[in-house]
Design a protein that fits this description.
By secondary structure, the chain is α/β, with parallel strands linked by helices. It has a domain of about 130 residues: P-loop containing nucleotide triphosphate hydrolases (Rossmann fold, 3-Layer(aba) Sandwich). Helix content is about 35%, strand content about 25%. The chain is built from ten helices and ten strands. Helix 3 packs parallel to helix 6. The radius of gyration is 17 Å and the shape is globular.
Length: about 230
């Protein structure tokens, strides 16, 4: 489905991605691991069309992926960014609807029903301002907003960051359920152990380049990964 081949990208004079190779196949959860500054978020932003590709190629369903964010979104690639970035002065319902503005509005009732199925609390809080939600509730809202775009690929950037353990467990269960519905997921996550437990495959990148790849189980068992990212 999604393939990155020798992709280079960065900001101004700073080159962040240096010949990065990555693939997400149909039905997979793929974890992307690396230290701070390795290029994980830049990878997602480059796929999303926010950061321009300087070299290499990104293809989606065997065709070149457009370099504009709205065109990427129209192809069904949805990003839930690090830091949530919900609209604090809009209600929960308005935040969710904002995720579907590029699509026919007659689909909204079915999409809202799906989001509320995953996150019943959002249905209860639909009239509450987004900025008054807790951190965990805002993360649920951010994921729900991405789901409103009917993703064919869902990209999640640090969905558990700063959340209490019981909320983290719930978020990862929802990620697994979304994937079981057939949505492939590209997951950037600082909680490497949790990410690899649910991932079919994973990549470890260092300074914008591939260092390791394997199944989730293989990376969990890797001495290099255990020492660098699992604190063992």
């Amino acid at each position: 489905m999604l393939k990155l081949r020798d992709v280079q990208a960065g900001y101004g004079a700073i080159e962040v991605l240096k010949s990065l190779n990555l693939e997400v196949r149909a039905g997979e959860i793929v974890a992307l691991l690396g230290a701070n500054g390795a290029g994980k978020s830049t990878t997602l932003l480059t796929i999303a069309g926010v950061v321009p590709v300087r070299g290499g190629e990104i293809t989606w369903q065997n065709e070149p992926l457009p370099a504009k964010a709205d065109a990427v979104l129209r192809r069904g690639i949805c990003l839930c960014p690090e830091g949530r970035h919900i609209f604090p002065r809009l209600t929960v319902l308005e935040n969710l609807i904002s995720g579907s503005l590029l699509f026919p509005t007659d689909r909204n009732p079915a999409k809202l029903e799906e989001v509320f199925h995953y996150f019943p609390l959002l249905a209860e809080r639909r009239s509450q301002l987004g900025g008054t939600l807790s951190g965990g509730e805002q993360q649920m809202l951010a994921i729900g907003r991405a789901l409103m775009g009917e993703p064919k690929l869902l990209m999640l950037d640090e969905p558990s960051l700063g959340l209490a353990p019981q909320i983290v467990a719930r978020i990862f269960e929802i990620i697994r359920l979304i994937n079981q519905k057939g949505v492939p997921i590209l997951l950037v996550e600082q909680n490497a152990r949790q990410a690899l437990r649910i991932a079919h495959r994973g990549y470890v990148i260092v300074t914008g380049q591939n260092q390791l790849t394997g199944t989730g189980a293989e990376l969990l068992a890797s001495d290099e990964v255990r020492q660098a990212y699992l604190g063992e």
